[in-house]
Amino acid sequence: MKNKHSLWKTSSGVITLLLVLPILAIFYTAIGETDDLFTHLMSTVMPTYIYNTVALTSGVMILSLILGIPSALVYGYVQTANREMVTMGIGSASCYAGLYHWLHFYGLV
57: pLDDT confidence band, cut at 50, 70 and 90? Predict the structure, then answer.
């Protein structure tokens, strides 16, 4: 049982490190001597990147609120005879969509 716990700790630590490395690289670039690279990025492309990120995040949040909350309310309040089948269908559809995108990403589809 300790091997599984150790594997979970190790794999989660590696994944966390991989996710944090780009952020650490940006901070290292900002602090280190890079011949004004970070200043150049801030004056040219970084405002556009920040605007695009905020716009995309806001759009996803707004669409999730507009589409997600009413559909969850309808699904929660409406009692149907096939409720278990609908729940299984939603779960399996999301699994299949995730699998398809994963296979498409790696060029297997």
Answer: very high
